[in-house]
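Example with several molecule types.
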Amino acid sequence: MAYELYYWPGIQGRGEFVRLALEQAGADYIDVARSEGPGLGITALMQGLSARNVTHPSFAPPYLRDGDLVVGQTAAILLYLGPKLDLAPEGEADRLWAHQIQLTLADLVVEAHNTHHPVGVGLYYEDQKPEAARAAEQFRAERIPKFFRWLESLLEHGADGAPWMVAGRLSYVDLSAFQVVAGLRYAFPHATEAALNKAPRLAALAAQVAALPRIRDYLNSERRIAFNTEGIFRQYPELDSPA
Amino acid sequence: MAYELYYWPGIQGRGEFVRLALEQAGADYIDVARSEGPGLGITALMQGLSARNVTHPSFAPPYLRDGDLVVGQTAAILLYLGPKLDLAPEGEADRLWAHQIQLTLADLVVEAHNTHHPVGVGLYYEDQKPEAARAAEQFRAERIPKFFRWLESLLEHGADGAPWMVAGRLSYVDLSAFQVVAGLRYAFPHATEAALNKAPRLAALAAQVAALPRIRDYLNSERRIAFNTEGIFRQYPELDSPA
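Resulting C-alpha cells for the full complex:
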C-alpha cells in the first residue's frame, strides 16, 4: 500500500524532508493535499488534524499515513520511515544518533523560520519587518555558523572519512542536511556561502546528495516545488547581506 | 550504573523534562553539572559537547549518559528512557504517538522561549524588549490557547476517560505536560489561567502529576530548582497581561 504524505500544497516546508526520503527510496507514495479525487486534496489534510476524526491527530502538518498507522512531526516521521526505506543505520544507538541530528536540524529550521516571523506566525512578514531584520542579522552572524560548525565537526571526527553523517552510509539525515543547506542558500545566499566556505565537508555532502540519481531526477521534476516566499526558507534580500 | 544527566546548573530548562521522568521512576541518577568532584561539574558538561572528545556530541544540553550510550535532545532522551523507566506505553504505535506529543510540547517550549528572545539567543532580553512585547502578545493571544486546545482535545477524545495523555496510563508525556503548564503559569499567570479555564482536563492532569508522591517530594526538595529569569519560562510582568 502506498504511503500517504499530508502536507500543505504549494510549499516545500517541513514536508520536503519526508519527500526527499520517499523519493530517494523510490517509495510508492501519494502527496495527498496536492492530489485530486475522493479522499484527497486539502480537505483530506484538514480532516486528519481533528481529534474528532482520527485517533492520533497532529498539531500541524506534515503527517504520514502508513495503513492504520498515522504519525506526525517531521523527525518522528523519519524515525519511523528511515528503517523501512533503508535510509537509517542499523542498531538502536546509531538510530538514536541519527534522530538526534535530525532534531537538531529541526531546531535550525525553526530558527530559520523565526527570521521572517520573530513576532509570531499569526502575523504577516510585512507586519514584523523591523523585528525580522534584527533576527536575521543574529541568525546570519551567529546561528548559521554555529550549526554548520557542529555539522562539520561530526563529518570531520565521526564518520571515519565517509562523506555521510551517520555510520558511514547514506541516511535520511544526509537528505535533510542537503535540504537545510539548499534552503539557507536560497534565503541567505551571501551568509550561507560564507559559512559553507568554512564547512567544506558539509558543502561536499550537500553536493553528493544533489547528485544522487533519484534525488537529481526528483529535483528536476515537477514534484519538486520551487522555493518561494510562502515557505520556511524565504528569499527577502533585505534579510541577507553581502558577507 | 547511575544515569548521568548533563544540563546547565541553575535553571530548570529543558533538563527538567528529563529530571521529572528520572524522579518519578525513582531512578538512580547524577545531575553532573550540579555535582562536585572528579569528572563532574560544568567542566564535564562542556567536554561532552565537543566532537574531539566524544563520538556523539550534542549541539546543546541536555544530554544523558547511560553507560556507553550518550543521547541528546530532550525528546530523544525521553524516547530512550521512557521504556526503561516504565514511563512509556507498550507497542511501537503508542510509543511513536507519545514521542510525537513530546515533540509538539517541545515546539511550545521553543515558542515560550522566543517570547523573551525573539531577536536571538545571543542577545540579552534587555536588548530586545520591544520585540519581546510584541512576540509575547501573540503568544498569549494565539499560541497558548491553540496548544492547550490541542492537548485538551487529546484528553477528551483519545484516552477513554483516563486522565493521562497516552494509552490510559501515566507516561513521561504527562510529566512534560505538567512542566509546560507549570512554566507557563509562572511566566504568564494571567494568560495561562485564562487558557486553562477552557482546558479543564489539562488543568486536572497537571494537578494529578503534581500530587504523585514522588513528584510531590521532588518539587518540595532542593533538587527542584526554582523558576527564575534565566530559564526558558521567565516571569517578566510586562510580558503577561490581565486576561
